[in-house]
Amino acid sequence: MLDDAQVRAAMFVHLERVSALHPEGVTSAEINQFSVAGQPMKLVVQPGIWKPAALEAALTIRTTYTPPSQLPPYEDAIAPGGLVKYAYRGTDPNHSDNRALRTAMQDERPLAYFIGVAKGVYQAQFPVYVVAEQREELAFLIAVDEGQRLVDPDLVASLTPDRRSYLERLVRARLHQPVFRARVLQAYEKQCAMCRLQHTDLLDAAHIVRDSDEGGLPVVPNGLSLCKIHHAAYDRNIIGVRPDLIVQVRRDVLTEIDGPMLKHGIQAMHGVRLTVPSHRAARPDADRLDQRYDEFLAAG
Questions:
Q1: Cβ atoms 222, 290 nearer than 8 A
Q2: What's the sign of the alpha-carbon dihedral 140, 145, 146, 150?
Q3: Can you give the pLDDT at residue 158?
Q4: Do 58 and 104 touch, CB atoms closer than 8 A?
Q5: Is there a contact between 83 and 172 (Cβ–Cβ < 8 Å)?
Q6: Residue 37, Cβ neighbours under 10 Å: how many?
Q7: Alpha-carbon span 22 to 118, nearest angstrom
Q8: Which strand (E) or helix (H) includes residue 206?
Q9: Contacts of 149 (CB under 8 A, 6+ apart)
Q10: Burial of 107 by CB count in 10 Å (0-12 exposed, 13-18 middle, 19+ buried)?
């Protein structure tokens, strides 16, 4: 039998490498190009909980891709303190998959968590830990950050609001933001919707309705794939987007005289039509664009 710690350490090195190459999401085929001690080992398989025969505890967990207009499954299952509720396989606590995940919890084994961001494409979160089980809800609780492991799930309700807020910010930084970015960039074929720049390390997922505002959900129709300069300009209402997808530059900025970045990078975007996803359900929501465009007009 393979050494458990050796397998997990090798898996994390492999995932670190492929995730660095593809921060917008890694295909299952690339993830599964993994071997340890000369033995090939798949990491993404059906169903969600995976325990290779050579190990006693689960190695990976997975959630499937959801349509662009729907939240990823974990978004509806965030427990207090930002812990992720991960559903049992079926309803039998003693199903072999559930036992394998329970063993990982009891032995404090780190796992990899694969979240679908497109068909056959995943955002890899690692290491994550199973920190509790809620049998009455047929679920386990997953910590996606080391800081969450330090808090007893049964004591979260007694934490100060600042402490709870801190823990929830951890899950946003580790889980929500990277997954939202990956889903949006996949939908926009990894290019800026305004200038069509295709260097993914210079692309962001911009919220149309800000995530701090009502309706600012992390779903693809509330996102735009923008390069960093256009993301910053959009966030600061230097650039706006009409509901008919036409880009507008704030009037005072249009009359400024500056260097080539302002002229070609900002002012030249005035009147450009956004390049949007071919999949209709992934296109920017007109009502959200209208709401955000009102903010842009007020800023001008």
A1: no
A2: negative
A3: 66
A4: yes
A5: no
A6: 11
A7: 13
A8: strand 203-207
A9: 129, 131, 143
A10: exposed
Please choose, from the candidates 274, 280, 288, 286, the residue with its C-alpha nearest in 3D space to the C-alpha of residue 245. Answer: 274
For residue 292, give every residue at least 6 positions away whose Cβ sits within 8 Å of its Cβ, in sequence order, or none: 208, 209, 240, 241
Q: How many Cα atoms sit within 13 Å of 49 on the Cβ side? A: 22
Local structure of 117: helix, strand or coil: strand
Task: Please check whether residue 156 is in contact with residue 80, taking contact to mean a CB–CB distance below 8 angstroms.
Answer: yes
Structure token digits, residue 285: 């929501």
The per-residue pLDDT for 203 is 96
C-alpha dihedral, 21 to 24 to 26 to 27, nearest 10°: -130
What is d(CA 61, CA 11) in angstroms, rounded to the nearest whole number? Answer: 13
Angle subtended at Cα 203 by Cα 200 and Cα 208, rounded to the nearest 5 degrees: 145
Contacts of 115 (CB under 8 A, 6+ apart): 62, 63, 72, 74, 122, 123, 125, 175, 179
Task: State the Cα–Cα distance between residues 195 and 182, nearest whole angstrom.
Answer: 19
Distance CA 130, CA 142 (A): 5
Question: Residue for token digits 């305004």?
Answer: 194
pLDDT score for 90: 87
The pTM of the full predicted model, rounded to 2 decimals, is 0.85
Counting as low any pLDDT under 70, the low residues of the chain are 1, 73-77, 80-81, 155-159
Query: Would you state the pLDDT for residue 74?
Result: 64
Judge whether 200 and 185 are in contact, CB under 8 Å: yes
**Burial of 152 per CB tally in 10 Å (0-12, 13-18, 19+):** exposed
Tell me if 267 sits within 8 A of 243, measured CB to CB: no
CA distance 57 to 168: 28
Q: How many CB atoms lie within 10 A of CB 160?
A: 8
Give me the pLDDT at residue 156, please.
67
Q: What is the pLDDT of residue 76?
A: 56
